[in-house]
User: Fold this.
Amino acid sequence: MTQLSDGIATRAPRNRTLSLTAEERQCYESRLLRLDGPAQLSEVSGRTICQDIFSALPLLPADSVDLLIADPPYNLSKTFNQESFTSVSMAEYERWLDCWIGETVRLLKPTASIYLCGDWRSSTAIQRACEKYFTIRNRITWEREKGRGAEHNWKNCSEDIWFCTLGRKYTFNVDAVKLKRRILAPYTETDGKPKGWQQAENGRYRLTYPSNLWTDITVPFWSMPENTDHPTQKPEKLIAKIILASSHETDVVFDPFLGSGTSSVVAKKTKRRFFGVEIDPFYGCLAEKRLAGVDQDSSIQGYSEGVFWERNTLSEQQNQAAKAARSRNTPLFDEP
Ligand SMILES: C[S@@+](CC[C@H](N)C(=O)[O-])C[C@H]1O[C@@H](n2cnc3c(N)ncnc32)[C@H](O)[C@@H]1O
Assistant:
């Protein structure tokens, strides 16, 4: 990849990473919202709010959110475009988590679900902060595969997602998040009928209940149309599982650390209402560009026909789409 003087990178032909021209940046920046007084749900719905989460939270509408998805900066020294986050002591990180998590409670409906992402190091602090305000229902581990090899330690390639609810009553649509798995041992009943599996054109599959170990999702790759220059972008497939399991159509999804907009984009694709806060205008603009693209393409890679597919297992229909894409040199599905 080479950098041009206007900041737009030239990329390899198969690289589908979403970028912004100077004109697009100007256009999408004008769509970003900045709150300076209390806002109604109708004012923030569908919008990307560009400001510090600590200034936004007191102004956001009370009792309005069905699903909170938070992917905060992990406790690592990391630069996100203009913003830098410096690693602090675990006690200090926990205090920081506590400050904004406590403030989100006012926004939640009594039946709300909350998902909070972290890595192995920040995970215990997240657990303790969540316990203070919510009922923890599960810890999901996502095997994200990509991670730097280490000479003297295990390669870090998993993340935790804490699943909590505010109360005892909450939404969980298990049928919306089943996993389609290729089966290795096709057991049959005594009458010869398949035992819990189906024969499809391209193999034998079982629809399985989703577990708290997610191994079917890659990080966004440069060849995937959802990819942006955000350094810690979550895959749409991962957020789709959360949204489909824990909300209904027209429910409200809120992401306080929106980044490149994945939560809002998937909420739009799945017909939920949404709003999000992101401090950095460049990422806010990426979110807006992605949201605009949903009108042309609302597909979610790895999710089709109402099921989540194990990586690299495609339906016939997907196979044909992939074949067509390959002939255009643009792969549609998960990279190995
Ligand atoms: C881990 S990333 C989220 C990535 C996002 N899930 C995605 O798919 O693109 C965290 C984001 O929080 C933003 N951020 C950091 N501090 C913030 C603050 N105080 N208020 C609002 N956003 C903040 C960063 O700019 C970064 O984009």
